[in-house]
Amino acid sequence: MDTQGDWHSEAELDQACENFMADYQVIDKQHSELLKKARIVQCAVLQKGTVWPEADSKALKYKSWVMATKVEDKKTWEQVKKGELTGFSLAGFAERQ
């Protein structure tokens, strides 16, 4: 379930991740500012037994969609380092059925 209460199957999540990396790869900050100086360097849907590098594995669950980014904007990177910014949006959309 996502933060809007919508459900999806495991296969739909895997396909969404694959489509995002193949066709889109846009992230934004606070749902309002596209990050042109940030890029995705790793992206995956965690499978059973997966350990994501440098993460608290207790916080990551099976089928979590995770990504690592390279932030090249100095102001944004300072916000990350200070803990003021702890994540990014996929800047995506979906259709409800």
What would you say this structure looks like, in words?
By secondary structure, the chain is an alpha+beta fold. Helix content is 23%, strand content 20%. The protein has helices at residues 10-23, 74-81; strands at 28-29, 33-34, 38-45, 65-71. The protein has a two-stranded antiparallel ribbon with strand order 1-2. Strand 1 (28-29) and strand 2 form a beta hairpin. The model has no long low-confidence stretch (mean pLDDT 80).
Short description:
By secondary structure, this protein is of the alpha+beta class.
Query: What ranges have pLDDT less than 50 throughout 5 or more consecutive residues?
Result: none
Strand order of the largest sheet: 1-2
Shape: globular
Largest sheet: number of strands, sense, barrel closure: 2 strands, antiparallel
Report how far the terminal alpha carbons are from each other.
Answer: 15 Å
Please state the structural category. alpha+beta
How are helices and strands ordered from N to C?
Answer: HEEEEH
DSSP strand tally: 4
Task: Please give the count of helices.
Answer: 2
- How much of the sequence lies in strands comes to 15-25%
Please give the share of residues in helix: 10-25%
Overall mean pLDDT stands at 80
